[in-house]
Amino acid sequence: MNIWDQAHECMxxxxxxxxxxxxxxxxxxxxxKNVTFYRNKFNELGFIPEDIRSRADLTKLPxxxxxxxxxxxxxxxxxxxxxxxxxxHSSSGTTSKPIxxxxxxxxxxxxxxxxxxxxxxxxxxxxxxxQIAFSYGLFTGAFGLHYGAEAIGASVIPxxxxxxxxxxxxxxxxxxxxxxxxxxxxxxLALRMEQMGxxxxxxxLRIGLFGGEPWSEKMRQDIETKLGLSATDNYxxxxxxxxxxxxxxxCKNGMHIYEDAFIPEIIDPKSGNVLPRGSVGELVLxxxxxxxxxxxxYRTRDITSLDYSQCECGRTLVRMKKITGRTDDMLIIRGVNxxxxxxxxxxxxxxxxxxxxxxxxxxxxxxxxxxxxxxxTGEIFSLELQKQRSFLETVKKRIISVTGIDVSxxxxxxxxxxxxxxxxxxxxxxxxx
Length: 433
Ligand SMILES: [Zn+2]
Known about the structure:
Blueprint: H1 6-9, H2 13-34, H3 36-45, H4 66-71, E1 85-91, E2 99-104, H5 105-122, E3 129-132, H6 141-152, E4 155-157, H7 164-174, E5 178-181, H8 183-195, E6 207-210, H9 217-227, E7 230-237, E8 242-248, E9 255-257, E10 262-267, E11 281-287, E12 298-304, E13 306-307, E14 319-320, E15 325-326, E16 331-333, E17 336-338, H10 340-351, E18 357-364, E19 367-375, H11 378-381, H12 385-403, E20 408-412, E21 419-420, E22 423-424, E23 427-429
Parallel strand pairs: 3-4, 3-5, 5-6, 6-7, 18-23, 19-20
Antiparallel strand pairs: 1-2, 7-8, 8-9, 9-14, 10-11, 11-12, 12-15, 13-14, 16-17, 18-19, 21-22
Helix pairs in contact: 2-3, 5-6, 7-8, 8-9, 10-12
The chain binds zinc ion.
Zinc ion (ZN) binds at residues 249, 251, 256, 311, 313, 315.
């Protein structure tokens, strides 16, 4: 069995929880002492770190939001002086200042080891050649996987993003065995190979580590079939550490969260209440080992659920399901939580490719209605009327089976959906609420 850190990945739960509690107390002391933001918050509540006697006491503490990080830009959330920081990364900020995240030497060491866990869990060994097609820069993705692969002793090809033909040439010539990229880029690579007349199976690829964006099971099957590799998912949050929060094992049945380094909670995004085990809600993370940039109850905005049942791989760590959406784009229709990603998946699996679409929600009388409008791509457009109808019927059935909500689906001409800054407005909610 390929387990990087047997001692922590297969811990008896009681011991794990004891370790979490000790590390939580140390982290709370650290932020209370060194981060004005947290000291003020704790003082407002009359809370001192010694008040934490069990993991459940964590719920007494307030959440940390991305907005809090923005307000404390750039270094306000650092818990160590800058001279102890050896690396600075940042997360995206399209409309405002980015978030600045710091790492001490020890943070980088732990980060590398956390990433090595899911790489090894996917089957990577020191014999592999790992081609990293993430962007090297302020973002965390490329560096995290880079360090993880080096920790395992694999050979790293720090390719960076883009330049698809060169990526393919390097795969052929260097005999790349592991591809690291976003899942959508993996499909783009497959398509380009097809156009270039290259059979992906003639390459040496055997493992794909994909992350950085949500993706469906259907997409996994497509990537695995087209590229002839085993594809696993991993999860990271740049404000929390980057990649290395959680990763799949070869059971491909949820991502093991590295609970010796993070405490996960699932909350109701509206009320902030912690939800019972197994519920779907927003993932909240508290870091347990980080020195430079500890986070207490950080709201990730990602929607998932946790599975505490024993995994066949032998790891005892809880598994999180694939991210099904973001709290910022969750729709509540007739009391049901609906995520654009569910609709996207339905279209994807019926069309066998992605198609631009828009979701329109309206209130007709007392009832909310859900309309999905799909732009006709060449592929679907070339179908006969009869086949177009059956395509619409398939999409409709799939959406109903996933969401349980009746839906009307229609096709429109290519490029006719309204766009803002080149991007389709994905959700139009016309309800007055
Ligand atoms: Zn497992």
